[in-house]
Amino acid sequence: LDVGVKVANPNRFDLSLLKLDYQANVGEASLAQGTYKTAFVVPEGGTSVVTLPLIVSVTNLGQLAGKLLQGETLVLKLAAKEEFDTPLGAIEVPFVEERAINVLGKS
Fold this sequence. Notes:
The protein is mainly beta. The protein has one helix spanning 58-69; strands at residues 2-8, 15-26, 29-36, 40-42, 47-53, 55-56, 74-86, 89-101.
């Protein structure tokens, strides 16, 4: 499965990404994971779209879909480790974001 992700760069300089490791979990269940190893540049003040390959657990995906259809609110956690190219060499930067998911609008 491939997913397009828009990457924004609010800085006044280009960002050169060398590698991206990522993991998506819902609760304790692993939803997807992967590594993107193709270098790309996000221009200063601009955006780029990168297509990430995902390895999805079909079993976990089915269980999570069932919980969502029952009205449960689940927490999606995306954790990533980005490796940027800089004039001082490669720098790794961690990233974590969490969002509540509920398709039926219940809390």
